[in-house]
Structure formats: C-alpha cells, structure tokens
Specification:
- With 417 residues, the protein is mainly α.
- It has two domains: 2-283, no CATH class; 303-414, no CATH class.
- The chain has 15 helices and eight strands.
- It has helices at residues 2-26, 34-37, 47-68, 75-94, 100-130, 183-195, 229-245, 249-252, 258-283, 313-329, 333-349, 359-365, 378-389, 392-400, 405-414; strands at residues 152-155, 159-165, 173-177, 206-211, 215-216, 221-224, 303-304, 352-353.
C-alpha cells in the first residue's frame, strides 16, 4: 500500500508540473514580439507562485481530516452559509463598501472555505465515477480512483490579455494578468498592445482585449471566489475536464492549432454544463438560491441586465460575427470595427453590456464553439454528439479520442449522425 500511495503522490506532483508547463505554453512569452508582451509587463500572473501557495495546503487539509476523523456536519447547511456569505461579500465589493462588517464576513467565510471545497469535490467525484470517467492508471486500476483527483481553490482568477490581428479573427497570443486590475490599467494595457508597430507580422496592426476568466485549469484549479453556486459547479467540472483530457488525444493535442483548441474548449464547455445539470439533479440547488452579485461576465463575455423581450442575443451576435468576417475578408477592417462598436451600443440598449467588442473579443470567446461569439460548425456537431451519446460521460469518452475536426466528422459518420 505504501508504494501505491507514493506512486499516487508522484502522479499528483507530475500533474502539478503538467499544469505549470501547460500554463506556460498557453500564457507566456510565445507572443508575437516583445513590444506586445511588454504591454503586460508588470501585471503578470505567476502560476508558479499560485501553485506553491495552494497545492500543499489543500492536501494537508485532506490528510488532516483523514487522520483526525473530522466530523462531517451538515454539508448542505455549510454550503448554504458559504454562498450566502459570498453573495453578501460580492455585493459589498460591488458597491465599494468597506468596514468591520465586510472583514467579519470574509473571516467567517475563510473558516468554511476548505470545508466547502471538500464537500463539492467529493460530490463531483461521485458523479464522475457514476458517469464512467474514473481514469484508472497503472497501480490504481483496482482502486476505482478518479484521476486526476477533483481539486480546486476559491480565489480571484487571473485575467487574460488576448491579441488578434486586426485584419482577421485569430487568437494569436494570450497572457495571464493579475486579477485586481482597475479599468484605467486595463485600458492602458490594451492601448499599449494595439500601439505596437510590427509591420512584418501585422501590417494592419493588432486588436487587444483584457478579459475576465471564471477559472483556470491549474492544479488545483483556480475558480472565482465570488461565483454563485450554480456557475461554480459548472466551472469546477469544466476545468477538471481539461485536466482529464490531458491524458487523451484531445488534450495532448491542445496546442497543435486553433482547431484542436476549439475542440477541447467546446467539449469541456458542453460536457461541463451537462455534468453540472446532473449534479444539481442529484444534490439540489441549496434552496433558497442566493442571487449572485454581478461581478463577472457571462461565458460569452457579456454582462446581462434587464434584457428586453424579443431580443435574441445569440442570434444577433452570430449574425454580427458572420458580417465581420465578410468585411475583414474583403479588406474592410475599419468598416468592420465601426460595425462592432455600433452593435455593442445596440446590445447595451437591449440590456447586454460588453465593454469592448473587437477582433480579439471574437478570437478569445470564439474558441468556445457552442457560444454566440462563434460560428464554427464544431459547436453544432459536438452538440449532436452529446445528444446521441446517451450520457455526458459517454460524450466525454467519445470526444476524448479526437484530435481534429476531420476525426469528429468521421466519428459522427460512424455513429450514423
């Protein structure tokens, strides 16, 4: 047993290294030039520092609970209290409130944090086991362990500086940024990146956008500490799927090109949403459900307020994406940018608020082929696969073996879809 435990711990350390390496490849200085990367200089998010702060503490907490026989208590009551505190803290931060009350709320929530994480991790693990998503590596095939273990940390997730050429929509570079940047700093970073002159690579310049993230698949995953219970479960499963898929062709080919990245992100999106639905069917929604504070954007990068009846944001956004592509393909870059700004203002009138709508917006959010920002046929094809797979777990297992859109087409044909 000791050698199995040692091997298991070694596998966790390996996973930690993979998370750091993957983040370094995806969000690092692979950018087009020092001039653009310099825009993020001084505001970088350190994956290494984050891992060193959080990876040991989580597993020490788990070992401590196992050795001490920590009382389980009432999991629903503990979760309900944690997210009630989260709602109140988020509301105060949104209103720029300060004072002893906020500090007291934060201190009480901190005492519940490890407990809430542990409950959610355990519930998701049982769900994944039932869906046949327990990865059974050598030495552990008889133990029925879910691998990688579900592990996340509440924290402020990093932002991302996304960069696209102005004359086409393509995510050409992305850099992790610190989460606590104010609007003035964000605007300055975007302006500096767009002011870079790189005529050889970008004769028409670049489009830049600083976007929020709901989470990042480090190990443990980092997820927003101001997320609602519902969005949190979706995000935790989404990020775990990225870690799981890393051991299959779909994950190992993530960095091959934009097509495989879109496949990976879309599978994680669709699979995560479907699995989250099963989670709430099994465990409920902690009624009464706290109303989340409006502190982070929706998956499509837009904040929704009082949306007017009869307004179909998804349809409008997809139509805009098609028209923008047509204009850019025709060399009408300025006209495309003017149209995006015009539509951004129209969306705001209908209750959908987007801070900046540009090529970088579509490049970043278009990686998720099931969202309104994308017109990639991969999205509908994966939705068809999910509907016919029989279960979310079966969908993930089928998709895990893919590494290209052509292979997705072949799989659908094989299934008669």
């Amino acid at each position: 047993m000791r050698i199995w435990v040692a091997a298991y711990l070694a596998a966790l350390v390996t996973l930690l290294g993979l998370a750091l390496a993957g983040g370094a490849v995806l969000y690092d200085n692979r950018g087009p030039s020092d001039a653009i990367e310099a825009a993020a200089s001084g505001h970088e998010y350190s994956l290494t520092s984050w891992e060193l702060r959080h990876f040991p503490g989580k597993w020490l907490y788990k070992m401590g609970g196992f050795l001490s026989g920590r009382s389980p208590g009432d999991p629903d009551a503990d979760l309900r209290r944690y997210f009630e505190l989260t709602e109140r803290i988020g509301a105060q931060e949104q209103a720029s409130a300060s004072g002893g009350g906020a500090q007291d709320l934060t201190a009480e929530r901190a005492q519940l944090e490890n407990r809430a994480e542990d409950i959610i991790e355990g519930r998701i693990t049982r769900l994944l086991e039932d869906q046949g998503l327990a990865l059974r590596p050598p030495l552990f095939s008889d133990l029925g362990l879910v691998f990688p273990p579900v592990d996340f940390e509440f924290d402020s997730p990093p932002r991302v500086l996304a960069v696209s050429p102005r004359d086409r929509i393509h995510l050409d570079a992305s850099f992790l940024l610190s989460p606590g940047l104010d609007l003035q700093t964000v605007t300055s970073i975007e302006q500096e990146a767009e002011a870079a002159r790189l005529p050889r690579r970008y004769p028409h310049g670049v489009s830049a956008l600083v976007v929020n993230t709901g989470g990042v698949a480090t190990y443990p995953s980092v997820v927003s500490d101001l997320a609602s219970y519902q969005s949190l479960i979706d995000t935790v499963i989404h990020e775990w799927l990225h870690q799981y898929l890393a051991f299959f062709p779909l994950g190992s080919s993530y960095f091959k090109d934009s097509e495989t990245r879109t496949l990976n992100e879309s599978v994680a999106n669709l699979g995560g949403q479907a699995l989250a639905g099963l989670y709430f069917q099994r465990y409920g929604t902690l009624s009464p459900i706290p109303t989340p504070a409006p502190v982070s954007p929706s998956p499509a990068g837009a904040q929704t307020g009082g949306r007017q009846p009869g307004f179909d944001f998804g349809q409008e956004m997809r139509a805009l994406r098609v028209r923008v592509e047509e204009l850019l393909n025709g060399g009408k870059t300025a006209e495309a940018e003017a149209l995006m700004e015009q539509k951004r203002q129209e969306f705001a009138q209908h209750g959908v608020f987007i801070r900046r709508l540009n090529q970088a917006y579509f490049a970043f959010h278009g990686s998720y082929a099931d969202t309104p920002a994308s017109i990639d046929p991969i999205g509908p094809k994966l939705e068809t696969l999910l509907q016919r797979a029989g279960s979310p777990g079966a969908f993930v297992r089928l998709a895990a073996g893919l590494s290209s859109a052509a292979e997705l087409d072949a799989l659908l044909a094989k299934l008669g879809l």
